[in-house]
From TrEMBL:
Annotated SAM-dependent methyltransferase Erg6/SMT-type domain residues: 54-341
Keywords: Alkaloid metabolism, Lipid biosynthesis, Lipid metabolism, Methyltransferase, S-adenosyl-L-methionine, Steroid biosynthesis, Steroid metabolism, Sterol biosynthesis, Sterol metabolism, Transferase
GO molecular function, one term: sterol 24-C-methyltransferase activity
Pfam families (UniProt xref): Methyltransf_11, Sterol_MT_C
Biological process annotations from GO: alkaloid metabolic process; methylation; sterol biosynthetic process
Subunit structure: Homodimer.
Claim: S-adenosyl-L-methionine is one of the keywords in the record: yes
Organism, scientific name: Calotropis procera (Roostertree)
Pathway entry: Steroid biosynthesis; sterol biosynthesis; Alkaloid biosynthesis; vindoline biosynthesis
Protein name: Methyltransferase
Family from the record: Belongs to the class I-like SAM-binding methyltransferase superfamily. Erg6/SMT family.
GO cellular component assignments: endoplasmic reticulum
Length: 346
C-alpha cells in the first residue's frame, strides 16, 4: 500500500539522505536554479546530483499527495483524478500494442505506479529503470504487495547510459521522466539502441509549447518556477523533442499535445480555486494543512530540518505548473509514438 499518513511523510522525507544532511541538500539543490543564481549549463553538467537530490527530497511528498503514479493526465468530465491517471497509463499500453509476454522497459519509473498498472493491464513483464535508490526500494516493496515482483523488476541506472544489450525490449515507454535528461537526442538514442527493430517507444514529455515566448519575462519566470520545483535542467519546446526523436533514428507514428483536447484541464487538481474531496491533499486547503503539519513535525524533530523548504519549492512548482497550463505555454503530456525501423535503410 502507498504511504499515506503524516508520519510516513515525515519518516520518508529526505529519502537516502541522512536526516542531518537534509537542510544542506536543500541548500545545494536550490543553488542549481535561476532564482538562486544557478545556470542551465551547471544543472546539465550535474544532472545526476541535482535530480537525485530532488527525488530524495520530494518522493515522500509526492506519495502523500499524489499516490503511486507521479504524473498528470488528460481528464473527462465526471472522471476522478485517480481514474484519469490509470486511463492515461492504459492508453499508453494500447498505443504501444502491448501483448502478453512482451518485455517492456519503463524509463524513469518513479516508485513504479505506472509499471504495476501497465503490467497488470497487459500481462507483460516490465523493467523499471531509475537512478534513484530510495524510489527503487519503495518500488520493490510495493511490487511485492501488488504481487508483480516475479514478473517485474527494477534496475538502478542512468537513462543516458543503460546497462542493457541492444535490441532487447519489445516496447519502451517514458512517463514524464525524460524531461530530466540533459540532452534529449542522447537519451532517445539509448532508448533506440535497447529497443528491438520494428518495435515502438512512446512517451509523455514535459514541454514548453509553441506559445512560449523566451523573451517574455513572465514566461521566463513560469519556466524557471517549473524547473526549480521539479528538478529539471531545462524544459524543452515540443518541436525540440520531436526533432530529437527523429535524430535518434525513430520513425514518428503519432505526435500530439494531449492537453489541447482535455475537457478538464490537467492542472485543475493544483489550481487554488478548485476544491475536491477525492484529491483533497492537492487543494489549497489541503496544501495549507500539509504546510502547517510539516512545520509542526519539523519543530518537534519528527521531520528533518529543511522539510518546510522542500514544501516551499513544491509550492512554487504547483504555481508554475498552473500558470504555465493556464497560459497554454506548458504541457506535461506532449505524446508521441516512435518506431525503430526494421533496418537502418528503412
Ligand atoms: C516525475 S517522475 C515520473 C515517475 C514515473 N514515470 C511515474 O509516472 O510515476 C521522474 C522519474 O525519472 C527518474 N529519472 C530522472 N532522471 C533519471 C536518469 N538520468 N536516469 C534514470 N531515471 C531518471 C526519477 O528518478 C523519477 O523516478
Amino acid at each position: 500500500m502507498s504511504k499515506a499518513g503524516a508520519l510516513d511523510l515525515a519518516s520518508g522525507l529526505g529519502g537516502k539522505i541522512a536526516k542531518d544532511d537534509v537542510l544542506s541538500a536543500v541548500d545545494k539543490y536550490e543553488k542549481y536554479h535561476v532564482c538562486y543564481g544557478g545556470e542551465e549549463e551547471e544543472r546539465k553538467a550535474n544532472y545526476t546530483d541535482m535530480v537525485n537530490k530532488y527525488y530524495d527530497l520530494v518522493t515522500s511528498f509526492y506519495e502523500y499527495g499524489w499516490g503511486e503514479s507521479f504524473h498528470f493526465a488528460p481528464r473527462w468530465k465526471g472522471e476522478s483524478l485517480r481514474e484519469s491517471i490509470k486511463r492515461h497509463e492504459h492508453f499508453l499500453a494500447l498505443q504501444l500494442g502491448l501483448r502478453p509476454g512482451h518485455k517492456v522497459l519503463d524509463v524513469g519509473c518513479g516508485i513504479g505506479g505506472p509499471l504495476r498498472e501497465i503490467a497488470q493491464f497487459s500481462f507483460t513483464s516490465v523493467t523499471g529503470l531509475n537512478n534513484n535508490e530510495y524510489q527503487i526500494a519503495r518500488g520493490k516493496a510495493l511490487n511485492r504487495v501488488a504481487g508483480v515482483d516475479r514478473t517485474c523488476d527494477f534496475v538502478k541506472a542512468d537513462f543516458m547510459n543503460m546497462p542493457f544489450p541492444e535490441n532487447h525490449f519489445d516496447a519502451v515507454y517514458a512517463i514524464e521522466a525524460t524531461c530530466h535528461a540533459p540532452d534529449a537526442v542522447g537519451c532517445y538514442k539509448e532508448i533506440f539502441r535497447v529497443l528491438k527493430p520494428g518495435q515502438c517507444f512512446a512517451a509523455y514529455e514535459w514541454c514548453m509549447t509553441e506559445s512560449y515566448d523566451p523573451s517574455n519575462a513572465e514566461h521566463q519566470k513560469i519556466k524557471s518556477d517549473i524547473e526549480i520545483g521539479n528538478g529539471l535542467p531545462d524544459v524543452r519546446v515540443t518541436t525540440q523533442c520531436l526533432d530529437a526523436l527523429k535524430k535518434a533514428g525513430f520513425e514518428v507514428l503519432f505526435e500530439k499535445d494531449l492537453a489541447v483536447d482535455s475537457p478538464v484541464p490537467w492542472y485543475l487538481p493544483l489550481d487554488k480555486s478548485h476544491f475536491s474531496l477525492s484529491s483533497f491533499r492537492l487543494t489549497a486547503v489541503g496544501r495549507m494543512i500539509t504546510k502547517n503539519m510539516v512545520k509542526a513535525l519539523e519543530y518537534v524533530g519528527l521531520a528533518p530540518q529543511g522539510s518546510q523548504r522542500v514544501q516551499a519549492f513544491l509550492e512554487k512548482a504547483a504555481e508554475g505548473l498552473v500558470d504555465g497550463g493556464k497560459k497554454d505555454i506548458f504541457t506535461p503530456m506532449y505524446f508521441f509514438v516512435g518506431r525503430k525501423p526494421l533496418s537502418s535503410s528503412q
